[in-house]
Amino acid sequence: MIERPVHALLDAILGGLELIRLAAATRFRLRGRYWRWRAATAFGGGRPASKRTVIRRTLAYGRWARSIRRLGR
């Protein structure tokens, strides 16, 4: 029972680390072309979302990016 929350927490932490890795790979140009494109595609380019929604979507993107990176190994 406790295993699932631990995995969720671990996924969130590792997803956050993947976001940091991506930020470093783009030399922390968070308003550069890649991040503008990513914001429009992954986070929705329509109406502004709440901060909570943006954080949730950002962490979900980090988890997804980590899983894709793991597939290439």
Can I get a quick summary?
By secondary structure, this protein is an all-alpha fold.
Secondary structure elements and their pairing?
Layout: H1 3-25, H2 33-42, H3 51-71
Can you tell me about this structure?
- The chain is an all-alpha fold.
- 74% of the residues lie in helices and 0% in strands.
- It has helices at residues 3-25, 33-42, 51-71.
- It is globular, with a radius of gyration of 13 Å.
- The termini are far apart.
Structural domain tally: 1
Q: Count the DSSP helices.
A: 3
- Mean pLDDT, to the nearest integer, reads 83
The helix/strand class is mainly alpha
Poorly predicted residue ranges: none
Shape: globular
Main beta sheet: none
Portion of residues within helices: over 70%
Output the radius of gyration. 13 Å
Portion in beta strands:
under 5%
Distance between the termini: 30 Å
Along the chain, the helix and strand elements come as HHH
Quantity of strands, as a count: 0
Features:
single chain, 73 residues, mainly alpha, 0% strand, globular
